[in-house]
């Protein structure tokens, strides 16, 4: 049959009929739905039809002045307890995870004591503080000199005792909730923040706590809901909060059930409001963690009522890889046309590593490492897994402390200052400051997932270099354009491909204008098709005059860009030399064996 024979048949084919889709019928679910509706109707009928529930009495008291006053006190105690309790809990949690053993021990002791103490006992002790200490005074300790003093009984009102008791109790419990959140943040995030030289306080406030919030918030709200109900405990202080007020009323009129219903419904209202707040806080901290945020509940309700339009669904930021490749190539080519962005980087630093040794416990990871990386040099470190390549790299910016030897960049020690033959370790702030000269790009990118691409890039220049926000954004956008990612500035890292994330990580480091750039297996976590786009950017940097040290398994790339290759095994530098010599004519048998295995 020839083509002309079948063509008319194709043309004459009837249009495809639209098929009807019938969803699967779930009989069990339908029966269960009817059963649930029936059960609810029965419960409603029994609750509303039984006069002993006393709904008229409920209606009489629900909005009465004493009940509303009690409710106000409950809300105030909950709000103050939550704010002060979580404030105290945050400080305690930070103290517990700090490197200071004294702070960690003090925090542990506090948490141990106040978690053990029943709230009711704590409230009673605080209420009787006046018996233990008649006055509270400000003065010079151990001298008897007093500037001011107050009567404890007058100072410690039932309300203050209640706020203090709830704060101390919640502080101890919330500290553990917050510590759990901090521990859930990936170690790489701490390292990336430290490698960018961000001060400790900024690391905690901008990087760690916002990410920890995702696991803190659900448990924290459990605690706050517990607190709202736990305020009923302050009846021991004769403080008329909601439940105590209800008790006073039903003891007088003996309408126990209707008044308990008043308290129950108000607690339900409080809980519902807290649940809505929790939903929105969780939604806020989900930014960047989810590819698309859950809808804003209020907006959905208003949209259903036709009052507002629904938010447009977030558009996926990912572009096809083929397009990125060409886009990236075009930008990078463009950068060479007399407008070489890399020429604006500072002159490369000279790294001198002298007799460095390092052990983890009994495991000797680095021995007798003695290397010089001249300014502007490009060095690739290769070697078998576990040979100490990454550890060596991490000692250069003092993410790992060496046991012996020294490392200097342009004659300055990174982690120490020298006086004669003695090295004094610098304090954290000084180390962070010196670390700015040494950028580091990690295998797993370690971008901050809760910050947009542009925020990732501008964070350190603003906080560490003191650049204005607008200026940092201009720089960030320019660098992004240079690596072909201009349109990704407002995306979150999880909305990017691995190759794009790694290019952003390189830009983030470059924005600090370091003298030395360390790459720790920058392409190991990438699909083979994405490796090229990252190597393209590193290749361009290799011609920029910045000093590059690259731990890599990409032997072909090392041959192409490096002016020297170092081969390491069992923590030692076995040999080093020009790529052509190491890869084609290795002097050492172990180098030859390794290359025979990997090439
Ligand atoms: N923090 C640590 N605690 C204990 N041992 C460690 C630590 N970091 C690294 N090591 C050990 O030190 C050795 C060298 O590790 P390193 O990561 O430097 O090797 P590598 O050559 O980079 O390996 P790879 O190519 O597989 O990444 C390994 O045996 C590793 O298990």
Rg: 33 Å
Which small-molecule species are bound to the chains here? adenosine-5'-triphosphate
Sum up the overall morphology in one term.
Answer: globular
What percent of residues adopt helix (DSSP H or I)? 55-70%
Low-confidence parts: 1-10, 313-339
Which structural class do the helices and strands define? alpha/beta
State the end-to-end distance.
54 Å
Residue fraction in strands: 5-15%
In DSSP terms, counting alpha (H) and pi (I) runs of 4 or more, how many helices?
A: 24
Identify the strand order in the major beta sheet.
Answer: 10-11-12-5-13-14
Largest sheet: 6 strands, mixed
State mean pLDDT (0 to 100 scale): 86
Number of strands: 14
Protein name: Amino acid ABC transporter permease/ATP-binding protein
Main location: membrane
Transmembrane segments: 28-48, 68-95, 102-125, 131-150, 232-250, 256-277
Keywords: ATP-binding, Cell membrane, Membrane, Nucleotide-binding, Transmembrane, Transmembrane helix, Transport
What does this entry show, briefly?
This protein has 599 residues and is an alpha/beta fold. Helix content is 55%, strand content 14%. The chain has helices at residues 3-12, 27-49, 55-62, 65-97, 101-116, 119-127, 129-132, 152-155, 158-183, 187-195, 200-230, 242-253, 256-285, 297-304, 321-336, 389-396, 428-435, 453-463, 469-482, 498-510, 528-541, 555-561, 579-584, 589-598, and strands at residues 135-140, 145-151, 351-360, 363-373, 378-382, 404-409, 412-413, 416-419, 422-425, 438-441, 516-520, 547-551, 564-569, 572-577.
């Amino acid at each position: 049959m020839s083509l002309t024979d079948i063509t008319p048949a194709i043309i004459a084919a009837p249009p495809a009929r639209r098929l009807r889709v019938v969803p699967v019928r779930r009989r069990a679910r339908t029966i269960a739905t009817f059963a649930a509706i029936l059960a609810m109707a029965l419960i409603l009928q029994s609750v509303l039809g039984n006069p002993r529930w006393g709904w008229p009495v409920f209606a009489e008291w629900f909005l009465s002045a004493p009940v509303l006053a009690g409710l106000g006190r409950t809300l105030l105690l909950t709000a103050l307890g939550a704010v002060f309790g979580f404030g105290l809990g945050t400080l305690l949690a930070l103290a517990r995870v700090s490197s200071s053993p004294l702070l960690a021990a003090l925090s542990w002791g506090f948490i141990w004591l106040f978690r053990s103490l029943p709230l009711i006992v704590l409230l009673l002790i605080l209420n009787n503080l006046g018996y233990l200490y008649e006055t509270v005074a400000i003065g010079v300790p151990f001298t008897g000199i007093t500037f001011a003093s107050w009567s404890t009984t007058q100072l410690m009102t039932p309300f203050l005792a209640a706020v203090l008791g709830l704060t101390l109790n919640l502080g101890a419990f919330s500290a553990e909730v917050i510590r759990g959140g901090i521990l859930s943040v990936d170690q790489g995030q701490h390292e990336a923040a430290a490698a960018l030289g961000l001060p400790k306080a900024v690391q905690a406030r901008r990087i760690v706590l916002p990410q920890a919030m995702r696991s803190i918030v659900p448990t924290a709200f459990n605690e706050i809901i517990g607190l709202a109900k736990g305020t009923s405990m302050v009846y021991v202080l004769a403080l008329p909060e909601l439940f105590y007020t209800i008790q006073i009323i039903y003891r007088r009129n003996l309408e126990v059930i209707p008044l308990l219903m008043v308290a129950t419904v108000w607690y339900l209202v409080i809980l519902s409001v807290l649940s809505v707040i929790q939903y929105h806080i969780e939604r806020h901290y989900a930014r960047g963690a989810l590819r698309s945020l859950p809808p804003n509940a209020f907006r959905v309700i208003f949209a259903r009522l036709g009052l507002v339009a629904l938010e447009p669904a977030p558009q996926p930021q990912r572009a096809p890889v083929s397009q990125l490749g060409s886009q990236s190539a075009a930008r990078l080519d463009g950068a060479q046309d007399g407008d070489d962005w890399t020429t604006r980087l500072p002159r490369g630093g000279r790294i001198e590593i002298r007799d460095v040794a390092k052990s983890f416990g009994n495991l000797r990871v680095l021995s007798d490492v003695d290397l010089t990386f001249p300014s502007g040099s490009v060095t690739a470190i290769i070697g078998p897994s576990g040979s100490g390549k990454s550890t060596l790299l991490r000692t250069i910016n003092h993410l790992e402390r060496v046991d012996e030897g020294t490392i200097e960049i342009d004659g300055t020690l990174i982690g120490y200052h020298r006086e004669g033959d003695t090295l004094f370790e610098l304090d954290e702030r000084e180390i962070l400051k010196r670390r700015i000269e040494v950028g580091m790009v990690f295998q797993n990118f370690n971008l901050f997932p809760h910050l947009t691409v542009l925020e990732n890039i501008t964070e350190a220049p603003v906080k560490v270099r003191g650049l204005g926000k607008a200026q940092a954004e201009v720089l960030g956008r320019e660098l992004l354009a240079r690596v072909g990612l201009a349109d990704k500035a407002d995306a979150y890292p999880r909305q990017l491909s691995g190759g794009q994330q790694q290019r952003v990580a390189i830009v983030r480091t470059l924005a600090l204008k370091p003298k030395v750039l360390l790459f720790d297996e920058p392409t190991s976590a990438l699909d083979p098709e994405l490796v090229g786009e990252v190597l393209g950017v590193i290749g361009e940097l290799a011609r920029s005059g910045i000093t590059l040290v690259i731990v890599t398994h990409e032997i072909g790339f090392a041959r192409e860009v490096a002016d020297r290759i170092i081969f390491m095994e069992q923590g030692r530098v076995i040999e080093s030399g020009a790529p052509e010599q190491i890869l084609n004519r290795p002097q050492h048998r172990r180098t030859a064996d390794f290359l025979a295995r990997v090439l």
